[in-house]
# Entry
Amino acid sequence: MIRKVVTLLKGRPRVQTGTAYAVLFAIGFCHLLNDMVQSVIPAMYPLLKDSYGFTFAQIGVITLVFQLTSSVFQPFVGLYADRHPQPYSLSAGMCFMLAGLLLLAGASGFGAILLAVAVVGCGSSVFHPEASRVAQLASGGRKSLAQSIFQVGGNGGSAVGPLLAALVIIPFGQRAVGWFGVAALLAALILLRVGAWYGLMLARGTGPGAQAATVAARLPRRTVRGAMAILVVMIFSKYFFTSCMTSYFTFYLMEKFGVSVVQSQLCLFAFLGALAVGTLLGGFLGDRYGRKYVIVFSILGAAPFTLALPHLGLGLTVAAAVVSGLIIASAFSAILVYATDLMPDKVGVISGVFFGLMFGLGGIGSAFFGWLADQTSIGFVFEVSTLLPLLGAIALFLPDVRPPRA
# Structure
C-alpha cells in the first residue's frame, strides 16, 4: 500500500508519496556510524592486552559485558518502545555511545573499561529497536527494502570500524578512541531530525503497525509461535555460518592453499562485499515475491555452494564463498520483516529480539568454532559449518505472508 509520509530531514515539513528514502538513508548512515563505533572495541583488544597486561579471561569478560548490554537489553528496550514510543530516544542512544567512548578514552583500569563498554553497549541497545520501527514507518509499504537499506549501513560500519581502528587507535593509543566520538555526535544530530519526523508521524496517528498486513492477524496463535521458532533456527543457521567465515576463512585459505595474509584478507573482503550486496538484493526480492520464498532461497539456496567449499581449488573456493555470501545475506531483512508481519503490534520487541540474536549468536558461533578448531582442525570446522544452510529446509513450513500490494 502506498501511503503519504512526511519528510522533515531538512527545511520545513513536506508531504511526499511512497517510500521516504531521505529518512531511510539517514538511519542507514547512522547505523553505519553506530556499528563502526561498536566494531572499534574488539579491534582495540590487542592494545588493551598489551597496555594493561590483561589475561584472555579478562578480555572475555569485556566482550561478555559489551555483548550483554548491546544484545540482551534490546528486547526490553523494544518492548518499552512498543508501548511508549520515544522519537528522540534514537539521538539519546547516540549520546550514550558518545559518553561511553569518552569514558573508554580516559579509562585507566579494568573496572573503568568495563563501565565504558557497557555504556557504549547501552547506546546500541537503545538505537536498534527504535530505528527498525522508523525504517518500517518510512518504507511506504516496501518493508523488506527499507530494512535492507538500514541493515546495509550496519554491514558497512562493521567492515570500516576495524580498518579505522588500525589507522587511528593502534598508532596513537587508547586516547584516540575519543576521536570516534565525532561520529557518535554526528549521528545524534542527524537523529534529532529523524526524531522530529517520527514524532510528527506519531502525532498524525501513524505507526509501524498501523497499516500492517492483515494476513498474519488471521493466523492461529499456535501457527505464529511455530513460525517464530522456525525464524530463530534460520537466524542460528545464518549467523553461525557467517561467523565461521568472517573469523576463520582467512586461516582456512592460508592453511589449505598457502596464500599470504594480504591475499586471504582480500578474499575475506570479497565475501564481506557479497554480504552487503546480498542484503540489498534480499530487500528487493522480498517485497516483490514474498518474504517466505526469499527466506527459503537465502538459506537453503546457499547449501550447494557451501557444501562444495571444502572440496574445491583456491579460485573456485573463493567464488563459491562469494556466491554463498550473496545468497545467504538476503535472509536477515526478510526474516525480520516477516516476523514483524506476524506480530505487527510488537515491531520494537521483535526487532530487539532478532538484532540481539544476530549479535549474540555471532559471538557464540565465533567462540564455538574457535574451540572446535583447537580441538580438531580448521578444515574440520569448515566441514561442519558448511552443513548449516541445510537447516533452511524447515523454512518450507512457514505460512505464506505476502507483502501488501500497492
About this structure: The CA atoms of residues 104 and 112 lie 7 Å apart. The mean pLDDT is 79. Strands lie at 4-7, 14-17. DSSP finds 16 helices and two strands in the chain.
